[in-house]
Structures are given as C-alpha cells and as structure tokens.
Model the fold of this input.
Amino acid sequence: MTIVEQMPTSTRGRWLTLSGVALAWVAAYWVNGWLWDRFLYDGLGMTPTDRLTETLHFFLYDTIKIGLMLVGIIFIVTVLRSYMSIERTCAMLGGKREGVGNVMAAGLGVITPFCSCSAVPAFIGFVAAGVPIGVTLSFLIASPLVNEIAIGMLFTLFGWQVTALYIAAGLIIAIVAGWTLGRLGVQRWVEPFVFETKLGGQVIDSTAGLTFDQRIQMGVEEVGTILRKIWPYLLVGIGLGAAIHGWAPADFFTQYAGPGNAFGVLVAVGIGIPLYSNAAGVMPLVQALHDKGLPMGTLLAFMMSVVALSLPEMILLRRVLKPQLLAAFVAVVGTGIVAVGYLFNLILA
Amino acid sequence: MIIKVLGPGCANCKNLERVTRETVDALGLDASIEKVEDYPTIAGYGVMSTPALVVDEKVVVSGRVPRPAELRELLSGHAPALPS
Done:
C-alpha cells in the first residue's frame, strides 16, 4: 500500500489532502516553541534561565524544527526536481565548450536530481556524450556543494542575504574549480576504461514519463530515505549545537576562530574536510557557533568543506579518477572554499 | 525472460533487486535475475542513474525503485506467466 494509493482519487481530493498536510506542517512548526516552553517550564517545573534547561530546550526545539524543515524542503525539492533528470542535463551539456559549459554545468548541478551513488555511471555517461572533463567536474562539484537542504535552512535561519551569498559562492567555486582542472589537462588522470566505454542503445530519461502521483510518491519516499540515513548526524549535530549553546564560554570559539584570528577560516576548513556529515547535520552547529560570535564567512566555509568534500564520495570517484586528479580536485575545491570564507568575512564584517 | 538489476550496491539497488525477486515469484514468471555491479556494463546500457532494471536487454526503469504494482505491470507485460 503506498501513500498515494491511500489518498482520494479525484484531483480535487488530492489537492485537499496535500493542502491538509501542508496546514498540519505549518501548525506543528508554529506550536513547536510554545509546546516545549510549557512542557519544560510548567510541566517539569524547570527554570527557564537555568543552563541545563536552556540546553535541553535548544535540543528539543531544534530537533523538531529541523526535522519539520527537512521534511518540507526534501519533499518540495524532490517533486520539483523530478521534472529534471541527469540524462537531460547530460544531453544539454554534450558538445558545449569549456567556459560556457562550466557555467551551465554548475547551474544544472544545483537543480538536477542526483545521488552521489550514481556519480560513476553519470561520469561515464557525460564523457561518452562528449562533455569535457572540466565541465563534468563543475557539475560534480556544484551538485553536493550548493545543497538544496542547506539553501532552505540558511534562508530560514539567517535570511536571504547569507543564502544568496552561499549560492553565488558555491556556483563560482564549481565553475572556477572545474575550469581550472580542465585547463590542467586532466584527461590523462582519468581511468582509461571511461573513454573506452560506449553507451549502448537509447539513453533512458529516468524521470520523463512519470505521472504526478509518482512524483508525489517519490517525494514521500525521498523524505523517508534521507531522514533514515541522516538522523544520527542530525542528532549529533543538534546535540553539539545544544552543548555549545549552553556550556561553551562566550569567548571560547572567538578566541580560536573569531574575526581576530587570521587563520580562522583555514582552521575551519581543515576541520571540515575530514568531517563527514550533511548540510542538515552541520546547520545546528553553525547556528550555535554563530550565536557565539563566529563570523559567517568562517562558518559557511566550514559547512561547505563538510558537504562538498567527503571520504565516501572520494572513494566512489576514485573508480574513474586517478589519485593525482583526486588530489587536485580536493586541493582546488578546498582552496576555493577558503578564499570564499575570507571574502565573506570581509563582505559581511 | 532475462532480468538484470543494474546497480553498484547502494541501498536502492538492493531494494530493487528484492522487489523484483518478490514480483517474479508472485507472478510465477520463468525468469532469471542477474545483478550487474560492473560500472562499464551499467553505463553500456545507457544508464546514468542507478538502480536500473533491464528486461530482455531493454532498460525499463532507471533512477528509482518502482512500486510493486508498477513492477507487476512492467514484468507481466513482457512475458506471459507460465501455466501452473
């Protein structure tokens, strides 16, 4: 039994159900803070200004809030994205020159539905379709870097300016890094079998013939899949955020990575690259650190380094890229993120 | 009928293999089910989003796990069920 099969069959009924779910979502989001206030202060008789209460409140409130945000964002983004597909993106990029191609690839990387588990067949498909390596890399960098979950959460937590800067910075990193790597003549560092593989038969567009019901169903399933995968990261992230919020001395972080420390961004990116989490898990941490006075540029650089460069993705890409190219990939993207961090600290200061 | 499940071993690839086996059993189809994990072969079918389902060398689904009802339709439309 699928969710969609349980919904009313008439078009009007479907829309009513969707609106009902949307209303319930808004109500839950609205009542979240009030509910925990009543529960902790009135129900358990805890003192609002107490450190433990504050930490606990932050944790409970943020868990529900971020959970709700994720459900909403993932559902909407998945349904919208189902009108694009990696195959269509590939066809659009085929035969494009470098430069224009890099810009297009970065933009398409943001809106194309793409799972890093498909990185290898997609890479082979791009190369076979005549997409230059540097352009393909722009796509592969932009796809995790400019993350739709991060966009939604940054917008709700920090407003549109920070969100716009984040999107622009991510696109510029993807464009410049892909272009640079293409200029380095990295073809020789791609595993030879990639060039030998010929695409047989017709390329199947994975999302073209779907019905609206199937797209809704995909959205519902994607919410479940992602939440099942990331909830441990999420809880750890929110837990750390809550601990920092309640217990870290006000000047603890600013002392090491604050505006006064010239190496702040470097330190943040150095910590972020080996850390493997996702945008949703990092965001509560970013929020708590921001409250403690860390500059936004440093925090965005930290978040980007966590989501853009991860060990599991590197292991996958190793199947098609030789170690030299992987190293260059990490170095170029890492440098871009550091540069963006310093730039933002200047702009937002 | 020869059914191939294309996928390097991600969670959804395993899901697709499982529902395919269940559907084949439920329909009583005479089919061999093969798992293809090798990247060049996967890409050779023109598949860029895994998992994908290939029936008699034709890609019928790519990039998602179809619901059981859809899968039943896909598979039963391809070959008549064996007389039991």
In short: Residues 11-27 of chain B form the longest helix (17 residues).
